[in-house]
């Protein structure tokens, strides 16, 4: 098999969702989907034509095998996914409607991934040949070993000249469970990153600043300036900007800022009739990474990322199995054109 261009490291999760807009257990069935923030990015990138490998640990049982099989179906190399004793991480989802927001209940404590020992990963071998490593702030929130493994991965990538893409994905409830020092650990991860997917709130968690500007874009500008000053390796910061008008109607815009002064803004799109927003941020991240890998300019990159993220809202499940042509079709409709 060809060496992967992108390696994604993280937990492969199973989502058990109440069907449609029902409450949990309202009817005797649950819809199952595979997810996990980093896997979602990997699946998108594979659909965009990149060679992607997942690194992680799944339960050594038929559920773990089936989950890894789902990744393979979407073109992701799972030869670096180990099987180990333990359970698969789960999350339960009720999809909101009307005045009722969506809700996630995690059931992932002591999963095979969370319990895997950090010294069980041979990072130089696992990263061999890769140009990018994608990580998120979810893995280190799962426990001390997972945090150590994420840091080891990031540092090994830096040492090998592999670009690290890091999605802040701050999940306070997960951090509270094991009592890890989120700020210190995330700071070390930001320090390795070439690009972070983070907004002013994530930067606030990591660097402790507050961003009182009334304008949402000005808050991100200020946070990015602080991040570029604190993290010399960091070249880009990208984020979406979401306003929720109701459960099914959001506005979604995006920004890409560069250390070199690059500043590209994709104006907000109206998302009506949202089918499933879980994984929207991952679809956006994959779209931005695709633009950077392909050498798009900043405006084309952010428009591609936003279009990919918007498309995800129309697709049930955590993955965004759309290809470049579908995303470009949306970009080309004109609604994603640069507005001057
Ligand atoms: O919430 C998490 O920890 C997950 O990884 C599940 C979803 O796939 C993820 O949130 C989507 O970004």
UniProtKB/TrEMBL annotation:
<dbReference type="InterPro" id="IPR052700">
    <property type="entry name" value="Carb_kinase_PfkB-like"/>
</dbReference>
<comment type="similarity">
    <text>Belongs to the carbohydrate kinase PfkB family.</text>
</comment>
<dbReference type="Pfam" id="PF00294">
    <property type="entry name" value="PfkB"/>
</dbReference>
<keyword id="KW-0808">Transferase</keyword>
<dbReference type="GO" id="GO:0016301">
    <property type="term" value="F:kinase activity"/>
</dbReference>
<dbReference type="InterPro" id="IPR011611">
    <property type="entry name" value="PfkB_dom"/>
</dbReference>
<keyword id="KW-0418">Kinase</keyword>
<feature type="domain" description="Carbohydrate kinase PfkB">
    <location>
        <begin position="5"/>
        <end position="312"/>
    </location>
</feature>
<protein>
    <submittedName>
        <fullName>2-keto-3-deoxygluconate kinase</fullName>
    </submittedName>
</protein>
<dbReference type="InterPro" id="IPR029056">
    <property type="entry name" value="Ribokinase-like"/>
</dbReference>
